[in-house]
């Protein structure tokens, strides 16, 4: 079988992309909770 390992830079790019997506998703959930809490009358 041929060695199909991807280049190091491509693996790093995937890692950084997944990390950025997870941080963005966490930020979106956090923002949504904040909006819902303010709608319910809680203020920070």
TrEMBL record:
Lineage: Bacteria, Pseudomonadati, Pseudomonadota, Gammaproteobacteria, Vibrionales
Keyword Transmembrane: yes
Top-level taxon of the source organism: Bacteria
Sorted UniProt keywords: Membrane, Transmembrane, Transmembrane helix
Keyword set includes Transmembrane helix: yes
Transmembrane segments annotated in the record for this chain: 12-33
Organism: Salinivibrio costicola subsp. alcaliphilus
Name the UniProt record assigns to this protein: Cyanide insensitive terminal oxidase, subunit III
């Amino acid at each position: 079988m041929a060695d199909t390992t991807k280049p190091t830079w491509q693996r790093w790019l995937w890692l950084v992309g997944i990390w950025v997506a997870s941080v963005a998703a966490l930020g979106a959930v956090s923002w949504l909770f904040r909006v819902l809490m303010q709608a319910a009358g809680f203020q920070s």
